Each structure stands twice: as structure tokens, then as C-alpha cells.
Amino acid sequence: MGAIHDDLHEAAAPGGRALRLGIGGPVGSGKTALVAALCRTLGPSLRLGVVTNDIYTTEDADFLRRAGVIDPERIMAVQTGCCPHTAIRDDIAANLDAVETLEERFGPLDLVIVESGGDNLTATFSRGLADRQIFVLDVSGGDKVPRKGGPGVTSADLLVINKTDLAPLVGADLTVMSRDAAAVREGRPVLFTSIREDKSAHSVAEWAAEMVAAWWHQHGPAGHAHEHPHGHPDGHPHHEDDPEPAVLPAGRE
Amino acid sequence: MDDRSHGDGHRPGGGPGDAALLLLADSRLPAGGHAHSGGAEEAVRLGTITDAGDLARFLRGRLATAGLVTAALAAAACELARTGHHPGREEDLATLWRQLDAEADARTASPAQREAGRTQGRLLLRTARRMWPSPALDTLGVAVPEGAHHPVVLGAAAAAAGCVPYQAALAAAYTAVTGPATAAVRLLGLDPVTVHRLLADLAPALNDAAHAACASLIDSVVTDDADPLAVDPCGDDRRRPPGGIGPDGDDATSSPEPGSAPGAGPCRGAGWPALPGHAAPALDLLAEGHLKNAMKLFVS
């Protein structure tokens, strides 16, 4: 890091800054692949920034750079001192610094994705860092994982269950996972994906685009120079006055 | 809240900054400190620290060098923040902040360490300005927009929280050893109680470092003011035997009234070059080596 900050005031007022989307989940569940997919799908229509938190520092950032889905300058890597959950929940200072550095350098941005380092089921993002958060599981951990709950599974705005292509191989019953997740999530959405088969993570990207649109609807778009910025993976633009995006979960506000 | 807790009056058992000092020195302070190892990660990688005995020697060395220097800088920053702010003269204070930050820069040989120190300072300022809003912190942010060095911000934050320079020095010395100690626990799987025993053994040395830092600050102020000891800038008398944390309850002169201390003008910084400048070449080399390690888990 080492950004030059002209203004050390705390995070800007909600109006005019990007939506901050946290993506967390256990090691190997596909967080980085999802970030790459979101960049691939949303990049053409949204101004993006990405902050990675990885125990091996630049590995995830390098993965994203190699994927060629986003200008490498727009990816910042944060070290977490062996404690990935601390950096997204208890002490978010370094991540906030990275987010604001991206916004200063490339802003205004529409969406900043903060990818957590791989952690356990109790890891969630502080609301001081992430406006919305996705928790990513995969089926290979067994179909009992959603039943075990934990703050990530129960409280994330979106639960993504990835690697559905592996379900028959590991004996995971997607129906059970869906039922158990629904039971602990009080109506918040769950999406099943196989990012290996769908490199655009279409359904998750659609959800994220709708979160950004809803954010603008509430707070005004980031910056003023962006004429018709509403990204939508289908290429069907939303209208500013869309009453309710199709899969909008229960809002936080 | 007890109304006697307002102002600078001290009561038996401690001063108004005591509780704030605990907050400031707590490893849970959300200011990014958890991701800094103070060279311990690189020392572990190189095999310099392999067990608790190695760690004890590392911590003693760190405290005697970088720890003492940061303690003195934090004390100086605390004193400046307590006494240097005068409405309408923010530019004078900004100049002094830049001078003190330059003193910190001059005492940090390794570019990697400078970078890490400024990053930590920037994050701490962000947190401190929300916890303890104050004009002195605002001015520091404007004066050094890239992020002042961590001990400078720590001292300023301590002042904003109600601490005296001695407490700022103690917090700086404390974090100089607790950061690496915690990192070593995480990296080597050392018994955390064994490591905290090391820290307990270091406690007298931490007190001594804070006292030495204050003594050096008094000396530095002596050089640029006619009557520097009219008010003790450390809120503590260096001629008193070390031992107590902070001012004694019965010492009415132990803490300066804000704005009443000597040397409040821009010439105050003239004495700062006399602050300790103990070098630690091994720590500098560790910091530089650490920067090149692509597999690092800590920022520094």
C-alpha cells in the first residue's frame, strides 16, 4: 500500500461512493473464482475495484491478474497477519484504507469487492466495511454444512453454494442443502452455482448488479459523470425507478 | 461519571488518561496493528527466532533500540499535541508536526520500515480521529497527508485521549514488543502464556524506557526554552525513582495545562534532534528482507 491520501476523513457519506461488497467463505470454496466471474460479467458496465485478503498475500491478486478480467491496478492486496477474520470484522482499518485508496485513485467507482481470506463458518464482514456480503460454500465440504449454520451461512445477504458439478461425486444432496439453508436464513436468498461450468456466474452477477442498482436508488449514483451506468449481465438496463429488483433480499437499512 | 474526572486534576490511583491508555495500548484497537510483526516474521523465516528464548532476546533488543526511539517520539508528539494547538495558528502546529515526523523519518533507516510505519500511522490516525476527535489530530492529518509515522500519531492520539507524554511513551514501548510477541505466537505456535511471561518480565524495562523517553524529551525542550522545567512536559518527574505509572496523585505540577507549556511556538522543534536515535541495523535488514518475501503473512 502506501497510498498518498489527501484527505484522512473517515469513509465518505454513503451518497456518491461505491457499494462495498464483501465475499467470504472457507478456503477453497471458490471466492476468488467468483470475484473473477463478477469482474468478467460486470466489468463492461460497472466501474470496479477489488481488494483481496489472502494469507499468501498476492496469490489471489495474481490469480485475478492472470485471469485478465480487471485492470491489475484496480486490485489491492491486504495482509492480515494470520488472522483473515480480524481484518474483515474486528479491525477493518487496512481494508478500509485499501477501499478508499482505490476510490481515490480510480473513483468514482460503482462497486468495490472485498474478498476475505479463507476462513471458517463464523467469519462475517463488519458493516463498517461491507454494505452487502456474500458467503461462499461449496458442496465438497458435505451437505451438512448449511445445517451447521454459523454467522456466515445464516446472516450473509447472499449464500452461494458453489461446485454443484461435484455434488454427485461427493454424495452431496443439493435438495438437503437448499432446505437446510432456507431454514436458517429467514428468507435471504441462496444461489447454487458451478463457476467452473458458468464462468460468468450469471445468477450471482445479476444479484450483485441489482444490489448496486438498489444502492444507487437509495444513495444516488457514485459520481456524476456516469450517464447510464446500470450494469446488468443480460444487457437489459434497469430503470432508475425500478421498484424492487427481482431477487432483492431483505434490506439492511 | 464523576465530575472530578474532568480536567487535568489527578486523583489517588492515577490520572484521567489511565483508562484511555488501556484502550490505546490494547491489541484490539482497530487500527491495523494486528498485521504488523515488527520484523518477527522475517526473523522467524530466517531461523533467528525459533523458540521463546530467541524471542525474549529479540524483544529486549527491540525495546532497547526501536522501542526507546518510538517511545521518545510518542512522548514528544503527545507533548506537542497537548500544548501546541492554538486557534488561528494551525499552520505553526502543522509545521511542527512535519518537523517531528521528519525526526521519525530520520530515525528509520529502512525504506520498508518507513513505509510500514507510515501505513500504521495513517490507519491509527483514521481510528483515533473517530475515537477522540481533536483539532491537533486534524492538523496532523493535514500536515502529513501521506500518513505520519506511527509513534508520532500514537503520541498525538494519546494526547487527544487525555494521556500525558509518559503514558504515550509507555504505550509506544508496549506496542513495540507486544506486536512481535503476538506475531511469534501465531507463526511458531509458541505457548501464549510462556510468551506473556516474557512480556511480564519486560514490564520493568518498559517503565524504564518510558522514563528514559521522557527524560530525553525534557532535555530536548531544555535546549530551546529559557525555563523549560517550569512545567514538566512529561507529566512526570524524571528525578523521581521510576516505578509508578503516570503522575502521582498528590503532584499538582505533574501535568501541564494545555496551552501553558513552554516552547509552543514553531521554534520548539529545535530540540528534537536530541531525542534518542538508537539504530538497530538488524531490524532494518529484517524489514528489507521481509519486503521481498512474497509469502509474507504480515505487512511488516
UniProtKB/TrEMBL annotation, chain A:
Residues 224-241 have a biased composition (Basic and acidic residues). Residues 21-191 form the CobW/HypB/UreG nucleotide-binding domain. One of its GO terms (cellular component) is cytoplasm. Keywords: Chaperone, Cytoplasm, GTP-binding, Nickel insertion, Nucleotide-binding. Its main location: cytoplasm. It is found in: Cytoplasm. Belongs to the SIMIBI class G3E GTPase family. UreG subfamily. Facilitates the functional incorporation of the urease nickel metallocenter. This process requires GTP hydrolysis, probably effectuated by UreG. This is Urease accessory protein UreG. The gene is ureG.
Automatic annotation (TrEMBL), chain B:
Residues 252-265 have a biased composition (Low complexity). InterPro entries: UreF, UreF_sf. Keywords: Chaperone, Cytoplasm, Nickel insertion. GO terms for molecular function: nickel cation binding. GO terms for cellular component: cytoplasm. The keyword Acyltransferase does not apply. It is found in: Cytoplasm. Residues 229-272 are annotated as: Disordered. Pfam families: UreF (PF01730). UreD, UreF and UreG form a complex that acts as a GTP-hydrolysis-dependent molecular chaperone, activating the urease apoprotein by helping to assemble the nickel containing metallocenter of UreC. The UreE protein probably delivers the nickel. Required for maturation of urease via the functional incorporation of the urease nickel metallocenter. Belongs to the UreF family. This is Urease accessory protein UreF. It comes from Microbispora oryzae.
